[in-house]
Every structure is written in C-alpha cells, then in structure tokens.
Amino acid sequence: MNQELKGVHSDDHIQAMLGLSELSEEERFELGHTFNSIYLHSTTTNCALMAAGSVVEATRWVVDGRVRNAVAVVRPPGHHAEVGCIYDVL
C-alpha cells in the first residue's frame, strides 16, 4: 500500500497521517478544525488506509479481469486530503 500512497501523497503527508494516533484528542480536534469538513479521531489513519486499500483492491480486480466493474463506497476522515496542506498547521 505504501507505494500506492506515495503515488499521490508526499512522504511528509504519509508520516503526518501515521502520527495522528499519537496526538491527544484535543490536538486532533484542533487540527481537524483547520480543514474543511474533516473530523480526526484516534482511528482516522486506519480508516483511511482501509478505504484506500479497498479502492486499490477493487481496481486490481477489474484490471485483472476477476470482475467486470466495481465500486468502492468509502469516505473516511481525510477524504479532502491535499498533498502538503497539513504541514502548515502541524
């Protein structure tokens, strides 16, 4: 999954997201309010990784011909992620 993430996100962004669980609830709350419609919680990173992995896996199944089409209904916190924007506030 790391290679797929690096295709669309910087190493700094990935590391920041992996570090969310180390922040206090108050720190996550404050950080979440610096973005548009983002709620950060202790399992945000796991939710985002599961959602991203689901999209990648669904795509693989279609490309490999195991299924004709697929849809991944995912919207974890972080759905508006933008490369680099988190570093101005962390």
Please characterize this protein's 3D structure.
By secondary structure, this protein is an all-alpha fold. The protein has one domain. The protein has helices at 2-6, 11-18, 25-32, 44-63. The mean pLDDT is 82.
Task: State the helix count.
Answer: 4
Structural class, by secondary structure, is: mainly alpha
Helix content: 40-55%
* SSE topology string: HHHH
Oligomer description: single chain
Main sheet overview:
none
Please tally the β strands and state the result.
0
Task: Please outline the helices and strands.
Blueprint: H1 2-6, H2 11-18, H3 25-32, H4 44-63
Core attributes:
single chain; about 90 residues; mainly alpha; about 0% strand
Short description:
With 90 residues, the chain is an all-alpha fold. Helices cover 46% and strands 0% of the residues.
